[in-house]
Predict the structure.
Amino acid sequence: MNTARPVTIIMIEDDEGHARLIEKNIRRAGVANEIIPFTNGTDALAFLFGADGSGMVNKGRQLLVLLDLNLPDMTGIDILEKVKANEHTRRSPVVVLTTTDDQREIQRCYDLGANVYITKPVDYDGFANAIKQLGLFFSVMQIPEAE
Amino acid sequence: MKSYSSGSVMPITSQTFVRSTALLLLIGLLTLMGIVGTNIWLVERSQVYFDEVLEGRIARRAAIELRTSMQDAESGQRGYIITLEDDYLTPYNSAIDRIDEQLEQLRLVLAPYPEAQAPLRQLEADIALKLDELAETVQLAQSGDVQGAMQQVRTDRGKEAMDSARAFVDALIQAIDNRLVEGVANQRNTMTALRWVTIIGGIIILGVIGGAIWAVWSYTQELARARRAVEEANASLEDRVRERTSDLGRANEEIQRFAYIVTHDLRAPLVNIMGFTSELETSVASVKSYMETQPETDDPVAGEARQAATEDLPEAISFIRAATRKMDGLINAILKISREGRRQLKPEPVDIAEIAEISAAAVHHQVADNGGEIATDIRIGKIITDKLSIEQVLGNMLDNAVKYQQPDRPLRVRISARHLPGNRVMIEVEDNGRGIADTDHERVFELFRRSGSQNNPGEGIGLAHVRTMVRSLGGDVTLTSRLGEGTTFIINLPRDLRLYLGNTGA
């Protein structure tokens, strides 16, 4: 991710505490990229697709989406669907990070084009560890530019 | 409930059916006996009439023959007296010979009739008189005294006797004829009576048969109606049971969903508490290590800060951590159970004996260490159920048996299974462990509740989990136990899980 154009991590997570803990643990893994947190789906969609909703706004940006499925205004599945359907954002990796471990939900997310599905571990140590490893994973990941 | 008392046909109960059938049978029997009796009596009477007619005819012939013989004798006598030719004596003699015999016959015929005895004696006297006169005149003529013979005839003594005899015979014939006519009329009447008795009896028997058919028919109808009513009631009962079962299934699902959502939503803030406590701990650790490097001063504020950083804060954090860890454990337990409840059951043929062996093998080391043993006595074949649930249930029970064994004696566990009526099976897990106090028999199945001394770690979810699993398999689990002697867990399951799932609409 240490390419010329910095990768931006879009974190869509309604629980601010979780968001902060995720950010802290990603930082601990040595990831210094910009993290933009959103606590609801509407704001996140506005950022991802711009004011006109076309997604053109992302041209030239490198995005990685961290997505929680339980949001106050919509489900993460809706966002995932929109991201993967839009020609400008469809190549951006989406990491689903959620509490649900329902098999049908996991299958559905991968069917819709999710790149990684992670269930938040129940205990904090496991949670922190998972996020750190995710951060390490981010640091070796190649992310394409949005068209 | 539907009522049948308003029907247009009076219902026949089994008692009235039996009574009316018996009555009809009795009527039929009496009628038949009447017909047969009357027939016999009428035939008997007919026989009597016939005999009378026969007798009458014999009497009539005897009387007529006697009269004819008398007349022959008289004609012969007259011819001889007039012609004196012996030719005329031949019919006279033969007639005289017959008369005695014929009179005897008539006497025999009339013997049963006392009223005929007096006229008969008169007849005998008349005949004797006549014969006497005939013999006298013939004798006179033979001796040549034709005049004398004529004289005798002229006395009219013979004629009177003859007239009297003739009158008797005529009266007798008349009486016999009357009797014959009467007999024939009686015979006809008897026949008519016989015909009527037969017709009326036949009608009565037809009526009895009709009545019997009606009784049987309406009783059968009534039975069919009752059976339909029972079937309807049964069907509606089954519907209601199915409805209730599916209601229960839905309610159960609802509760499990609720538990799942609640635990999920509780966990999100808990992760924050735990996370930030952890962050706080890290921060406090750095403050603490900084404080420890600082030299002690007399400044009370610095002393308090040092105490806070090195003692109070770490203590508070350790309590928060312990509490959140406990809470996390509880929430996870609920989550586990609710997840288990949501798990899709997979009915398949499951060999209980095999699972019992595997479960026993899993705890073999722990059991053998104390010289204990696990025996199995499985008297059932494969049942259709969810294999994973059975494995977990039996595993849990054996873990409990090991965990709560009485330390001063080797553990003895016995797993047995047998069939129960109603397509069910019963699996028993019996141990000689420390047992469960009477007051706790139901309590141990509740979530987070444990019994006896808490010298083993545990959250109190094992048996709650077992009960949840067994109930979702359509069964139930209970226990019998004596404190200090041992516990027997009794699991009752349907033999085919698919039928249970079919009923709950799952």
